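Page 42, continued from yesterday. The earlier attempt failed because a stray header line got pasted into the input along with the sequence. Redoing it now with the clean sequence only.
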Amino acid sequence: MSAAMRGTAARAAVPLMLLLACAGLTHPSALPGQDRPRPREVGIRIGHLPPGPLDAITDVPGVLVGQATLAWGDSLNTGVTAILPHRGDLFESPVRAAIVVGNGFGKLVGLSQVQELGEIETPVLLTGTLSVFRAADALIDTLLAMPGHENIRSINPVVGETNDGYLSDIRLRPIGPEQVNAALRDASTGPVREGAVGAGRGTRALGFKGGIGTASRVIATPAGTWTVGVLVQTNFGGRLVIDGVPVGDRLAETAREPHDADGGGSVMIVLATDAPLDHRSLERLAERTFGGLARTGSSMSHGSGDYAIAFSVDRGPIDIPGGGALSRLFVGAMDATEEAIIASLFAAETTRGQLGTAEALPIDRVLDILDEAGVLAGD
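This time it went through. C-alpha cells are written below.
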C-alpha cells in the first residue's frame, strides 16, 4: 500500500476500538473467573528475570487482548483470541514485526507480506484451523468498514491457527464476524484470561487440556529497560517438562491410558515488546521463543504448525540494543514463552468434545512432583 493511499485513508479514520464500541456488537458470553492457580502463584519460577505487574503480554505498554469463546455441548469448543498492538488505526500506524516458522504445517494468513515489509497493519487473530480463512475475511470486512478506509484496495490480515478438531466439530467452521468482532470489542490492557477460552477453548497440549497462556519479563540493562510479553495458543505433542523436571514421565507412571509423547499438533506464539527493534532483530527475538517451547517438552512433530509472531510497540527511531542487552531480551523471550505454555495448562479445565475428553493437568500431583524435585520457590 502506497504512502499516498495510507494518507487518504487516515484523514477521516477513527480508532478500531471506537468503531466497535459504537457498532452495537455483542460481547462474548460471560465467563467464570479463573479458579485454577497460575504457575507463579504456587511457587514455579521460570528463569531469573522478573515478570511485569500482570505477568502477561499486556504488560507491554498499549497491547490489548480480547477473546470470544464458542462452547455448545460436545459439538463446539472453539473461539477467537485477538491481540492488538495499540488502540488506534493499525493500518495507518502499523508496528514493526516479524514472523518465524518453526515447522510449517499450518495456515498462517498474512505471513509473506509481514516478512516482506517488516510490519503488521491489522490486529493479530488466533482461531481454529478451518475457521482461519473466515476469521480473516471477517477481519477484512470490519477494517474496510472503518470511516476513512473507503479507498483501501488491499489489506493484510494476520490470522494464525491450531487444529481443535478433537474437541470441536471443526468442519462446521463456525467462526464469523460475530465472534471476530466480539473478540475485538472485548480487547483490554488488563489481565488476560487463560486456559480453555477464546482460541484455546478446544486445544490439547503435552497430553492434557491446552489453551491460552501468557507471561512477561522485564529486562533492565544499561541501555534501557524493556518488557517482553508472550501469549500462546497451545495444541502440541510431547512429554511435559516444568522448570527442567520431567513431570510428564512421572504422571505417565500412574496414567489411566498411555500417553502419546509423539502426538502432533501446533502452537501459536505471539510476542510483544517495547524495545526499539527493527524487523531483523524482531525475527531473531521470535526465533528464541522456540527455545522456550522446547524446554516444555514439545516434540515439534512432523504434523505441527509452530509459528512465532513478534512485534514492537515502539514507534520511535530504531535503536537496536548492544549484544549484551539483546541477549537478555532473548532470555526474556525464552523464559516468558516457557511460562506462558505452562500457564495455559494450569488454567485449562477438563473439556469434553465430539471425539473425546481432554483432561486438565492434575495440579496437586504436579506440585508434589516439583516439590520432591526441590524446584518450588518458598513464600
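Notes: The longest helix spans residues 323-347.
Reminder to self: strip header lines before submitting.
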